[in-house]
Write a structure and sequence with these properties.
Number of helices: 10
Helix content: over 70%
CATH class: Mainly Alpha
Shape: globular
Oligomer: single chain
Order of helices and strands: HHHHHHHHHH
CATH architecture: Orthogonal Bundle
Structural class: mainly alpha
Number of domains: 1
Length: 254
Amino acid sequence: MPPMRTFKTLFVPLLLLVLWHWIAASGLVSRYLLPGPGAVLSSALSMAQSGILAEHLAASFSRIAMGFSASTVVGLAVAGLLYRFRLLDELFTGTLSFLRMTPPLALAPLIILWLGIDGAMQVAIIMLASFFPIYLNTRAGLSRLDPLHRELAASLHVSRLRFVLFFLVPAAIPSVITGLRLSFGYSWRALIAAELIAASSGLGYLIMDAEQMQRADEVIVGIVVIGVIGWMLDAGFVRVTTALLGRRFPEIRG
């Protein structure tokens, strides 16, 4: 990243950090409620050295990996099937619309009754939250194939497999990439929300446990770690997709 772009990216976070330090140092807000950046950094280092932070990070990462992977596979498969078979589309459109308009956390009490508070509950919430960005964007991408390309494929008498691989999939890739990026953001937020509601480990649980212990510094550590990790993963996703597909699909560049 060029130095000027890096400066612009970090300008607002650094400004907020300075403002946070000034408020904490001025005494406008009790340090018990808003500890300064130094106290939060000290708590973060202590949590990292003790292994607590790594333990909760590992728990959250394992859940996000399972939930996001599963929703990606299911979302792509369902989009392909409903695009291919009109009858399935007509049968499931109403049900999918109902599920899309139902917040995943509204189903959390029922999911807890069925699956308990272990990892399965969080994975289920992640899947419900992240399925629709992948599904809807893939459906939209599949529908964007230029009619001229369809006529070209028909005139060349290409097989269905070649049509899918060389015409349909390339047309859908930009939308699929967008869906995956949106889906991961939904997955990350849904995971933290699910861990806040019911979990025995993870970053969301870390924040809730710190709140119950009245440790504002550890709550802020959890919030900052969640934001920074999410930011880094999103930036990594953009870099990887741009490096692999940016020349062929300029529109996916972040």
